[in-house]
Amino acid sequence: LEDLTPATSSTQEFSNESYATVIFPNPSNGQDINLLLIGKDMDQVNYQITDLAGRMIQSKDNYKLDNNTITLDLGNNISTGMYMLLVKDSNNKVIATEKITIQR
């Protein structure tokens, strides 16, 4: 059986506060992926998904979080491969940078 327990992806410093991010499932089947912010309450963020060459694949400004979770609906727009997820707060400060793997 595959272990589906989310692991902490990274720990960041945000305005002198420590917090962690958890991305799951990763690798993803390409339908959706979630990023949970632990230890920092936020209402909305801006995010970008780029390929490893830096080309924009998807972005959204003022994305409203649900229980500190970003749920990205990837649909069938993203091919198998590696991508980067960049998340910024409302002041345009980077709060998370995560590598995403899509496996179909």
Structural description of this entry:
The chain is an all-beta fold and 104 residues long. The protein has strands at 8-14, 17-24, 32-38, 44-51, 56-64, 69-73, 81-88, 94-102. A four-stranded antiparallel beta sheet has the order 1-2-3-6, with no helix packed on it. Strands 5-4-7-8 form a four-stranded antiparallel beta sheet, with no helix packed on it. The chain is globular. 16% of the residues are buried. Mean pLDDT is 84; it is low at 1-5.
List keywords for this structure.
104 residues; mainly beta; 4-stranded antiparallel sheet; 8 strands; 0% helix; globular; disordered N terminus
* Beta-strand percentage range: over 45%
Quote the average pLDDT.
84
Q: Tell me the number of helical segments per DSSP (H or I, 4 or more residues long).
A: 0
Strand order of the largest sheet: 1-2-3-6
Helical content class = under 10%
The value of Rg in angstroms is: 13 Å
Layout of SSEs?
Layout: E1 8-14, E2 17-24, E3 32-38, E4 44-51, E5 56-64, E6 69-73, E7 81-88, E8 94-102
Antiparallel strand pairs: 1-2, 2-3, 3-6, 4-5, 4-7, 7-8
Brief characterization of the structure:
The chain has 104 residues and is mainly beta.
